[in-house]
Structure to design on (742 residues):
């Protein structure tokens, strides 16, 4: 009994059913493991690799992000004048997470490959693209470089899904793919 | 002396765990299928 | 009124014990007192956490939207701390004393230290609760830097962890001494083996928490300049996720125990079950990587090896238990003569007994909802679709709330007549409580999961994003799911209230020896 000591000599071979189940379970486990790698080669979507992040500081990142916005800004939107940016031929694009706004609004071209740089100027934020549900953790001090090629035209919303203090639910943004 | 059912000790449990197995496989593959709707993030 | 048995003393020591008339186990009197105090404190924490659950559940129900934003985030922090940390660990402390002393017929080693441990845990828990309600720790249970909380928050957290470490050490010392003094013959019971697994994992877990929280405290005290957020995440989740594996091991130990208590089942193969626990000890801590799958700067190979608990070996452990526990019940029932067809054993099982219904509900919810969603969410590329959405919240409500908490509740119904030595209050409530709670948790966790697939973020006050500069609209189907989650919250909280009412009411029932293993007849 589980709450009483087992009989002596409890180290005995598995019965037929136990062997069957353990084998099936073990094969499934190994399969799932190799799927992780297999999908990295076969699949349409992958985690950014370890190399796809750089150490930075909020101050350093802000310089690059501001320069990017200044160079490609085509307008503004909203009460706080969120910059709207169209990078055109530029591959290195910069998104900034800050309490409580994603900056800038991006207008991208479908079929074009970008290195999307994302970092935070203050606390941790959760990059979340809807409705496709791509989610990344954004840390201050880390420039997360996401290589991607948007394939489908449309308007994508950004929300924040890492608690970033009292205005967390106000933090939104937009990426438009033309 | 365990009473056996057609030679199986715990056939009901075998059915249940295989049900569990197929359920996990279903959820797993079902989710992989939804991956293809995402951005080309290779 | 039946007389309460007079205590005698363990041979070669001064520890007093009494003999349980139902199980004939020797019950160390000091251990019994500690079980009672830790269990009662656990239930107080559950009550607080459950009250907050109701309030935040009614806030995330869009039509209700009860709390203001600051109070939502505040009580969400308090909910997380009281449930994940205080309810779980105080209850597990009671379970450890139960396993090491009562199940082994042994005396508790280090009684005074055990009370020091309890005091540390209590002070820590009170500090944390106070400072959160005072509005100085709106940081969630994860407290990610650079979010800032008052130093008192981290001090309380650390004090609690130190107390918990002490409990684990006392548990292990008690088992070693019990073996040395020959208090039990042969190998320890499987349930104790499972609790030992939990305690070993807990030591690593709490140590990792210390590595995360102590530098963070030093930062908040101004002693060091800052703490790298990535470093914190890795070390914190070495505590945070591994703690869930502590809960998992404890829950499985209780599953095996409930099987024995309700139908007299014994493990079909002790070697198999014990090996499965060893797989946990060896690999389960790698699961912390689940929280870091979409973090910058970690290599994919690192992520894959860790997230799979080393090729899913720890998952294999769970799959083994998933078989062993029902198989044990089935063989026990078949031996009693319930041999009809494939499922006669299941249909004729004692469903009316709260220990059995909570066991089966907990097995189902953890086995079919909690566990599989965990396996899916832990696959690297799939995590991309789910990280920080309500799918994560749905997963862990199925595991730790629908699974572990429900099992703990069922087990309480045996502890009250046998250890507290009071008959259960409101037995009608007892019979239905696991069902009400289980149904609520199923509705809640499935709704959360589905809402998350539509993008619902976690820890979020307003998914309509009213007053955001750039407007966002999430799919309307998500709102339907959020409504169901609200209903699930009400149902689950009702189940929780039933449990607390029974426990508190029982404390006021007249003290007497249990008359049966079945708590409805005790």
């Amino acid at each position: 009994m589980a709450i009483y000591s087992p009989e002596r000599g409890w180290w005995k071979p598995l019965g037929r059913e136990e062997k069957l189940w353990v084998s099936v379970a073990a094969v499934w486990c190994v399969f799932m493991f190799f799927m992780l790698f297999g999908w990295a080669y076969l699949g349409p979507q992958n985690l950014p690799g370890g190399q796809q992040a750089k150490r930075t500081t909020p101050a350093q990142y802000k310089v690059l992000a501001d320069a990017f916005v200044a160079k490609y800004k085509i307008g503004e939107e909203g009460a706080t004048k969120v910059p709207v940016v169209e990078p055109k031929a530029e591959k290195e694009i910069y998104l900034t997470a800050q309490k409580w706004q994603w900056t800038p609004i991006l207008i991208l071209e479908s079929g074009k490959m970008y290195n999307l740089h994302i970092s935070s100027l203050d606390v941790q934020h959760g990059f979340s693209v809807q409705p496709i549900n791509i989610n990344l953790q954004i840390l201050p001090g880390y420039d997360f470089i996401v290589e991607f090629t948007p394939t489908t035209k449309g308007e994508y919303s950004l929300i924040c899904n890492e608690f970033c203090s009292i205005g967390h639910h106000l933090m939104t943004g937009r990426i438009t793919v033309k | 002396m365990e009473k056996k059912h057609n030679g199986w000790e715990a056939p009901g449990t075998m059915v249940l765990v295989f049900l569990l197995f197929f359920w996990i496989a279903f959820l797993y593959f079902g989710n992989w299928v939804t991956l293809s709707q995402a951005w080309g993030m290779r | 009124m039946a007389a309460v048995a007079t205590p005698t003393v363990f041979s070669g020591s001064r520890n007093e014990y009494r003999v349980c008339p139902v199980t004939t186990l020797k019950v160390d009197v000091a251990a019994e007192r500690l079980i009672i105090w830790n269990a009662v404190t656990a239930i107080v924490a559950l009550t607080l956490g459950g009250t907050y659950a109701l309030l935040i559940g009614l806030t995330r129900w869009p039509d209700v939207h009860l709390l203001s934003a600051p109070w939502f985030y505040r009580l969400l922090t308090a909910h997380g701390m009281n449930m994940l940390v205080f309810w779980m660990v105080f209850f597990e402390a009671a379970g450890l004393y139960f396993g090491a002393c009562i199940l082994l017929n042994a005396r508790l080693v280090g009684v005074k230290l055990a009370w020091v441990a309890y005091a540390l845990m209590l002070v820590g828990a009170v500090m944390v609760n106070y400072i959160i309600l005072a509005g100085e720790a709106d940081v969630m249970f994860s407290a990610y830097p650079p979010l800032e909380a008052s130093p008192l928050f981290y001090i309380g957290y650390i004090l609690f962890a130190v107390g918990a470490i002490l409990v684990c050490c006392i548990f292990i010392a008690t088992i070693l001494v019990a073996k040395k003094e020959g208090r039990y013959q042969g190998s320890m019971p499987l349930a104790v083996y499972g609790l030992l697994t939990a305690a070993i994992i807990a030591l690593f877990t709490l140590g990792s928490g210390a590595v995360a929280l102590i530098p963070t405290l030093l930062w908040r005290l101004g002693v060091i300049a800052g703490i790298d957020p990535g470093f914190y995440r890795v070390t914190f989740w070495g505590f945070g996720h591994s703690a869930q594996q502590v809960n998992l091991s404890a829950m499985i130990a209780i599953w095996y125990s409930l099987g024995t208590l309700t139908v007299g089942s014994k493990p079909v193969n002790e070697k198999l079950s014990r090996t499965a626990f060893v797989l946990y000890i060896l690999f389960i801590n790698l699961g912390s990587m689940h929280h870091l799958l979409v973090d910058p700067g970690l290599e994919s190979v690192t992520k894959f090896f860790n997230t799979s608990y080393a090729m899913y070996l720890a998952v294999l452990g769970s799959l083994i238990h998933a078989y062993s526990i029902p198989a044990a019940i089935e063989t026990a029932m078949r031996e009693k003569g319930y041999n009809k067809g494939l499922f006669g054993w299941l249909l004729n099982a004692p469903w009316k007994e709260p220990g059995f219904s909570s066991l089966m509900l907990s097995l189902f919810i953890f086995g079919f909802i909690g566990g599989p969603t965990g396996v899916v969410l832990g696959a690297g590329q799939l995590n991309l679709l789910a990280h920080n959405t309500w799918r994560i919240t749905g997963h862990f409500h199925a595991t730790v709330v629908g699974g572990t908490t429900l099992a703990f509740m069922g087990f309480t119904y045996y502890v009250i007549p046998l250890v507290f030595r009071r008959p259960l209050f409101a037995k009608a409530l007892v019979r239905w409580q696991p069902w009400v709670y289980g149904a609520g948790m199923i509705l809640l966790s499935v709704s959360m999961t589905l809402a998350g697939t539509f993008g619902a973020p976690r820890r979020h006050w307003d998914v309509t994003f009213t007053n955001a500069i750039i407007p966002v609209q999430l799919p309307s189907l998500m709102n339907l799911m959020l409504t169901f989650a609200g209903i699930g919250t009400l149902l689950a909280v009702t189940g929780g209230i039933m449990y607390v009412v029974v426990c508190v009411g029982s404390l006021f029932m007249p003290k007497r020896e249990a008359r049966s293993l079945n708590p409805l007849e005790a």
About this structure: Chain B has a mean pLDDT of 80. Chain B touches chain A through 20 residues (CB under 8 Å). The first helix of chain B runs from residue 11 to 35.
